[in-house]
């Protein structure tokens, strides 16, 4: 039977999560780790397999190893929701996932052979009898998922995501496992799978680091500071660019710009903005280097390739902190 005959539509949107500050209280919640990977809906019907990203785009060409792994399972028809990850030295690596998004098929297959992906499952959208579970409550879908994974047998690259109804335990994950997790997701046990809706809650693992201000960029079309460029020292004493923060109050920008211009100087001595990397943009060379004298504390969520994956949030200035104390070890897993 073709994939189109499955009871779950191939254009199904993934159920999303809304960011909240803390885990919800009260009964009826299930908590699961939020894995640091690529969201993936996986459809199989016989020899046909479709991997779909959260964006709706197919992932088959980037993860041929997972396509073959799903084809090899002893269950011919299923629809599951999960997270694609690649472990490097026993820890999920988002950078390794990004490297798979390569235009050359030969390169993708080489990476797939060297570092195969895993699929961590947290939802099941079709039962054993071939009926859709999209409208079924999570409690029923979870039982179906556990039964499905048992039918899969010992598949090294297929994992069942753990979970708990104990809020205290989930909060412990955030505290103790923050180096490995992207956060915790809370789901209603009585809730259906809600395609495209933010029907889940996510609590992110936010960490802080003290960084040197190694430069700044002007806000577009102005002569006022728009973002601070952040650096950390490595073991060789080089100041490497690790990210930026643009959460500067508008009223503070004129005075801060004058303060920064008085510190124009050497800037980064290791990796610098504008160097060859996947973070480079059209404006990557347009920045003002500064002497490494100012330190700020910033909040961040994830690190990829030694840099903050997203813009960091400015927490406070740290005049009490010596720039030399701002080292890369702060953000290493």
Task: Characterise this structure.
- By secondary structure, the chain is an alpha+beta fold.
- It has two domains: 3-204, D-amino Acid Aminotransferase, Chain A, domain 1; 207-331, Nucleic acid-binding proteins (OB fold (Dihydrolipoamide Acetyltransferase, E2P)), CATH 2.40.50.
- Helices cover 18% and strands 32% of the residues.
- The protein contains six helices and 19 strands.
- It has helices spanning 64-71, 94-100, 105-114, 138-152, 167-176, 253-261; strands at 16-19, 29-34, 38-45, 48-53, 77-85, 87-88, 91-92, 118-124, 158-160, 183-188, 198-204, 207-218, 225-233, 239-245, 288-289, 295-300, 303-304, 307-308, 313-317.
- The strands form five sheets. Strands 12, 13, 14, 15, 16 and 19 form a six-stranded antiparallel β-sheet that branches. The protein has a five-stranded mixed β-sheet with strand order 4-3-5-8-9.
- A hairpin with a 6-residue loop joins strand 12 and strand 13 (225-233).
- It is elongated.
- The two termini are 45 Å apart.
- Residues 275-284 have low confidence and may be disordered.
């Amino acid at each position: 039977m073709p994939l189109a005959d499955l009871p779950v539509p191939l254009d199904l949107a993934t159920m999303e999560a809304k960011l909240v500050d803390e885990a919800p209280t009260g009964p009826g919640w299930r908590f699961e780790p939020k894995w640091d990977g690529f969201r993936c809906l996986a459809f199989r019907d016989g020899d046909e397999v479709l991997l779909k990203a959260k964006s709706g785009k197919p992932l088959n060409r980037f993860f041929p190893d997972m396509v073959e792994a799903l084809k090899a399972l002893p269950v011919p028809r299923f629809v599951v929701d999960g997270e694609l990850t690649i472990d490097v030295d026993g820890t999920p690596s988002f950078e390794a996932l990004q490297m798979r998004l390569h235009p050359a098929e030969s390169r993708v297959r080489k990476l797939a052979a060297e570092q195969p992906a895993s699929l961590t499952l947290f939802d099941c959208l079709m039962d054993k009898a071939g009926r859709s579970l999209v409208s079924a409550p999570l409690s029923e879908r979870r039982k179906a998922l556990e039964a499905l994974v048992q039918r899969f047998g010992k598949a090294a690259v297929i994992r069942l995501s753990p979970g708990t109804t104990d809020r205290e335990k989930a909060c412990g994950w955030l505290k103790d496992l923050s180096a490995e997790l992207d956060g915790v997701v809370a789901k209603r046990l009585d809730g259906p799978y809600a395609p495209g809706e933010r029907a889940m809650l996510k609590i992110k693992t936010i960490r802080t680091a003290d960084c040197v201000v190694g430069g700044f960029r002007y806000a577009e079309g102005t002569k006022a500071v728009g973002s601070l460029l952040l650096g950390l020292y490595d073991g060789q004493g080089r100041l490497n660019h690790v990210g930026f923060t643009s959460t500067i109050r508008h009223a503070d920008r004129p005075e801060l710009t004058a303060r920064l211009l008085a510190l124009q100087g050497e800037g980064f001595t290791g990796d610098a903005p504008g160097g060859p990397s996947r973070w480079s943009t059209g404006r990557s060379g347009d920045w003002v280097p500064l002497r490494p004298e100012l330190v700020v504390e910033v909040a961040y969520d994830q690190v990829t390739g030694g840099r903050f994956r997203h813009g960091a949030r400015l927490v406070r200035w740290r005049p009490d902190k010596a720039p030399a104390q701002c080292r890369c070890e702060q953000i290493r897993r």
